Protein 1
Amino acid sequence: MKYLTEFRDGEIARRIAREIHQTATRPWKIMEVCGGQTHSILRNGIDQMLPPGVEMIHGPGCPVCVTPLELIDRALAIAAQPGVIFCSFGDMLRVPGTEGDLFQVKGRGGDVRVVYSPLDAVEIAAKNPERQVVFFGVGFETTAPANAMSVHLAKRRGLRNFSLLVSHVLVPPAIEAILQAPENKVQGFLAAGHVCSVMGYWEYPPLAEKYGIPIVVTGFEPLDLLDGIRRAVKQLEEGRHEVENAYERVVSFEGNRAAQKLLAEVFEVTDRTWRGIGVIPKSGWRLNDAYREFDAEERFHLSGIRTEESPLCHSGAVLRGAIRPAECPAFGKECTPRHPLGATMVSSEGACAAYYNYGRFLSAEQLASAGRGLSGAAHG
Amino acid sequence: MCLAIPGRVEEILTENDLRVGRVNFGGVVKRVCLDYVPEIEVGDYTIVHVGFAISKIDRENAEKTLEEFRAMGVLDEELGSEEEAWARAATTKPSSCPDGSCGGE
Ligand code: SF4
């Protein structure tokens, strides 16, 4: 495992960590929403540099993890149809549906292609007018402008054989759902830097105000994360609840106006089911009426899809931050990255897989006797 | 999946009415849509996510971030070719994690 001491900026990191230790007088629970941040925190051992009691809770920020099983099953069904070219980002290939994954669909003769950008899928559609080309558009606000441009371009170029299987999820409604949950323990948030580079952070001040929580816009590198945590802890200690930008080199308050404009032209807000969490009202985007004809769910009428989740899995509680991965009785036993029972073990950005991969193996019993959670019990 | 990677714009073209740049990510060059960052010019650095530039960034920060992402091992996954993506998937057991990093370390 890599530790921060191995980084070029190890000295600065240690200085920020010291400052957090000096500032924190009480236990605090801070959630990083983004899976990329979860990954970076665990990979760099940042959780283990924090004072006992200052805990990072890992939020539902892995788009692969929260994509409902039902949608994966739809993707598999469409990809298996003759005459279809199914395009996806590489990280969806091994995400299991009820039966199999996209990799296996290709093995059985399906035309599944990995693209770098959704525009590559539009190009494939232009070159194959006799085939239906579908792009699997999952992700948060960061990915949405790319998907919006793909349908916008397809419409402008009159490509009737292109469609989008779309399941966009939005961060602010997820934050609100977490804060409204009766068992909520989260006292402050690190907002995901790249989501904010698109959306800005004008949506956050009302949340910070309404729920009395600090929200710090934070990047992905070790120093960014430590700085974000430092600022959140400082606010909590001082009883403040403001929105701060710790990622100014990339994020502005307004965000990317041009991207937001096209998003508004192509998408409309909709209720979304988050795998493991359930329906969160107004928490996603779908294509609006003007673009409905490019919606793969409209174009391919699929019926008879039945999905089943494992009864052993507590990924919903993990995604809400109610329990830590290792507190799930199946963690590391019935459920490992090779045999994932739930969404949060499937993706390497999922909290359960990240805990597993970075050696946070403590069982629920060990945790309870350690008494203060993983950040206190340095291990791995 | 939400990571955006900094790169340097080397050339700007117009394709299908889109502003498209050739962007260099520390050696790997990709075609990137620049429509969302109209202010970008050749020689500028920008943060790119799934083939779209989403914000401008200065050179020093761009290079530092690129180095950091390389150290974290996330570049290959974001910038690899289709063949590499399939090869990665092939060595990943069914139902294992998407990018093959499970069980690593
Ligand atoms: S360890 Fe596995 S079974 Fe338990 S919550 Fe995580 S994904 Fe679900």
Protein 2
Amino acid sequence: MINRKVAAIAGATVLALVLTSCASDRDGDDTNTGTDDGSGGGDTGGGASDATFVFGAAGAPASFDPFYASDGETFRITRQIYDNLIEYEEGGAAPGPGLAESWESSEDGLTWTFALREGVTFHDGTEFNAEAVCANFERWFNQNEVGQNAAVSYYWAADFGGFAGDGTDSLYDSCEATDDLTAVVTVTRVTSKFPTILGQAAYGIASPAALEEFNANDVAAEGEGFVFPAFATENPTGSGAFIFDSYDEANGTITLVRNEDYWGESAGVAELVFRIIPDENTRRQELEAGTIQGYDLPNPVDWAALEEAGNNVQVRPAFNILYLGLNPTTMPALTDDRVRQALYHAINREQLVASQLPEGAEVATQMMPSAVAGYNTELTAFEYSPELAQQLLADAGMSDLAIDLWYPTEVTRPYMPDPQRIYDSIRADWEAVGITVNPVAKPWNGGYLDGVQQDQAPAFFLGWTGDYDSAANFIGTFFESPENNFATHEYTWGQQLSDGLRAADSEPDEATREGLYEQLNADLMEYLPALAISHSPPAIVVAGNVEGLVPSPLTAENFATITITE
Amino acid sequence: MLRFVIRRGLQLFIAMFVLSVLLFVWLRSLPGGPVTALLGERGTPESTAALREALGLDEPLHVQYLRFLQRALEGDFGISNGVLRGAEAIDVFLTRLPATIELSIFALLIAVTLAIPLGYVAARRHGSALDTGSVIGSLVGVAVPVFFLAFVLKYFFAIRWGLLPPSGRQSVSIDATHVTGFFVLDGILTGEWDAAWDSFRHLILPAIALSSIPFAVIFRINRASVLDVLDEDYVRTARAKGLQAPVVRQRHVMRNALIPVVTTIGLQIGALLAGAVLTETVFNFQGIGQALALGFETRDYPVLQVLIMMAALIYIIVNLLVDIAYAVIDPRVRTR
């Protein structure tokens, strides 16, 4: 018996050593390269702080090429490495100058001329100019088959809708460098989204030399995953305030260093480190122990304690919507307007927002937040009236209505910090008017999202955080295609709503467009494909000695403004 | 003998094949999937379908499996789409394995160095306050969930008193060279003493948390074993013939008492690896346990397949080696 166990231990050890010696070669290489690169930028800074800012990230980035990303963990890092043609104003969502100092469109709204900033260089020393801008557009447009996948180049597919040679209409037509600092971009149709979309992290401008040298477009699908080229994994090269230094996979840390030759104001810290800490409690403890200086989306129940401990909880303006979606596919009773109205009238949202959502949350009057152009200020919150709800149900002959109410588990979203409590609150309201509520709780990625997207859930909670200031990004995303989570094609007004959204999006005149969106928002509150619930402000927390962080409603913070005091 | 080895080798292949089929089907029958993990609420029918197609998930299960098998035989186990996107799944395993081995070894060292002396002393002072206290303590050690102990340890040692780091494997301020992937060993090998010390400090709390279960088991086995041996005739004989007490203890009591303890330690290695999933998650220790947890969250099929298959392979090979060794020693086994 002993022999058997001793042999087992010995065998395991030998095997382990063999296996790990294979792995270690790789690690060694990675780290060495990282260290060598790192010493490049640090020594030239005159008088700036040599402090390090360590941020607790919730997950690993997909890569360091934002064009192939759609997740916040990737964008938080790439935003520091790349600049965009257009940057959203600090602490806001309105488009402002970035690498383009100004831009103007032709009368017909199809030709856009960008006047570029002078004296900008990429991290590899090459010059930023109009040729570089066009090289980026061409690079985005000319993707291989895998790159054309709507899930790989998510933002391009969502915003521009097509690639070179894929046979579909793309919003992008051409780009021409008319002189060194003037880039002229032509689009194929008028849309409210252009050029505002160019401020999104996905459209960070990269060095054309690096794009070519490190085969940026060679993304491949292999073995149930995507393999990214060297540009995305080891050589991301932008013109931003921080330069990529290294990614230590064994230790879960990503290091960026200050760009000493940055065209704008240099970053306030010499080093920016992202430590991957998947567990939220652990992130909080690391902050309390002082081993990280910030993390994103602290749980609202911790805000007060974090503040008390001397940290700085920065609450962002709410740029999101939580709604209760309704889908009549499996429950035809929902096509009766009175039933949807009754469900809405029965919900006490004032109380829900006050008791279940963080401070600063608001009751929603429509399907998008007030900061977005096209918000209808004349709409008032849908009235809370249990009596009216009961009356409407009685009129519809549905006094014994029973409904499956879906809510997700194992998840928190910026617009929905605690799904279970929101569910409890609404179930109580509905039961109070005599509705039978059957709870359907499923893990977010374990049946919930799949069920919602496959029309299985008659009532469900979902929401959206805006990518930029545009009604198209909110109500357009939800309802423009009639094949949506709400199955609006089942309603008589479904197609009309789609057409209206398309017309508004392609209206070139800004004032007219806003008017159209205002009307659409009013219409939506008549149609009620979903019940708008609330706007909930997400927070970001930094240690007490961290200054200069400007919270962004788009959760697009620029870490270059951060300084650390002793 | 050769026939025996061949037969067992064949059994190994069959076992791995059956496991791979079951695992493949089971993982894909879990609700949710990598597509949902990647797209979240941004998924539309078009993007969901496009992604399923690109990942090959739209094809019939047997086609997917055959492709997986073909690749696996060529040494390609797929690409991670959740734990470390874009990385080879096998590299995720290899990069993270040293962390888990390092943690397990330290946990076992703590358990053994504390449990054996304590078990011995408790048995010698059978019925004393120390004995009762340690027995209760060991019961608590078994009963308290690892994550709770981890939380308490972190709260006091890392946050309240700031003596030790709350999580991770190495401080970001340390510029360490990784040679073997065992961070403490790396520090010693390269002479980077600050890195070795820093990694060691990161190991202390998770190792203590993880050691609680083997500690309790080893302590109780050792105590019981010492009690048994103290009653043995040969111990009485040794005393009777006038051997000095320390000689009796070392030569007769300890030695014989340790035999079942060594067996127990071997058995605890499996429990250690299982406990690593929780400990690594709570302490953000980048080992295979944490990768397993993250893999399930993101439905990272390639990584989950590699991690589970490799764990099974190690287990089977070790057992195979043991059986072969037995067969060498005991000819009767060969014919069975």
